[in-house]
Write a structure and sequence with these properties.
This protein has 253 residues and is α/β, with parallel strands linked by helices. It has three domains: 73 residues, Ribosomal Protein L25, Chain P; 78 residues, Alpha/beta knot (3-Layer(aba) Sandwich), CATH 3.40.1280.10; 53 residues, no CATH class. The chain starts with 19 loop residues before the first strand and ends in a 6-residue tail after the last helix.
Length: 253
């Protein structure tokens, strides 16, 4: 994916407060959203005339819109603000994962997308039970790309991740450093030890904590806050991600 050039202001679409986020091939003054996206927004999400929606080209550029017309399974968006550009995150981040059964790869791709991963690489491991080859590999990859697109809409992400077709380990390409997950390897740099000997990781419901709850928690001795990327995460994703950060710091007593 090559980023589009332009002098647009830098901002995350996730901070706009829009009711929904969608991808469009062109960020014109008027955008028709139909097909699967139109059905989802108009019939499932029930987005109404007058509501604000952001639209992105998938390469970092996005724009606020207002719904001007709602029909069965489609919406017409009218521009409500200037183009902005979501910054790319550095260093780049690619994640390769071995194929597994059922819908697990879809869940992995969805969560990696919401965490802001740039490149997602399913691969065939020697111990993988699943073997995607030929037409099956192409159709499965197409499905994973749809999952990534849906997840990017959910988390208001303006950069669509690259989802590669599955390869063997030897085919995993990178332009940087390879990091292999190994439970026997040293843990990363430790986070500060908790007050009272316990970390209490709190993740609010969709929409976050209210002001009183946040004030209560952050006023306690040693309290801190932590974000996992700039995008809007599902509650279960945020909980798993934060738990993983802290679990990596723990040792056997």
């Amino acid at each position: 994916m090559d980023p589009a050039s332009g002098p647009e202001p830098i901002a995350f679409a996730s901070t706009s407060g829009a009711a929904a986020h969608v991808f469009a091939p062109e960020l014109a003054d008027a955008v028709l959203v139909d097909g699967e996206d139109g059905h989802h927004l108009q019939r499932v999400r029930r987005i109404r005339v007058g509501e604000r929606v952001t639209a992105s080209d998938g390469f970092g550029r996005w724009r606020p819109y207002e719904v001007s017309k709602s029909d069965r399974g489609s919406l017409v968006l009218r521009v409500a603000g200037p183009l902005s550009r979501e910054p790319s995150l550095t260093p780049g981040l690619a994640v390769a994962f071995a194929l597994s059964k059922g819908t697990k790869p879809e869940h992995v791709v969805s969560d990696l997308t919401t965490l802001g991963v740039d490149r997602i690489l399913p691969f065939r491991s020697a111990r993988s039970v699943v073997r995607w080859e030929g037409d099956r590999a192409r159709s499965a990859t197409a499905r994973l790309r749809r999952v990534a697109r849906e997840a990017a809409m959910q988390c208001r992400r303006s950069w669509l991740p690259q989802v590669d077709e599955p390869v063997g380990v030897a085919g995993l390409a990178t332009a940087g450093t390879v990091v292999v997950g190994d439970p026997a390897a040293p843990t990363p740099a430790a986070v500060p030890l908790p007050v009272g000997g316990e970390w209490l990781v709190v993740v609010g419901a969709e929409g976050g904590l209210d002001a009183a709850e946040l004030a209560d928690l952050t006023s306690r001795p040693g309290a801190t806050t932590m974000a996992v990327g700039p995008h809007v995460l599902r509650t279960e994703t945020a909980a798993v991600a934060l738990a993983a950060v802290f679990a990596a710091q723990r040792t056997a007593a």
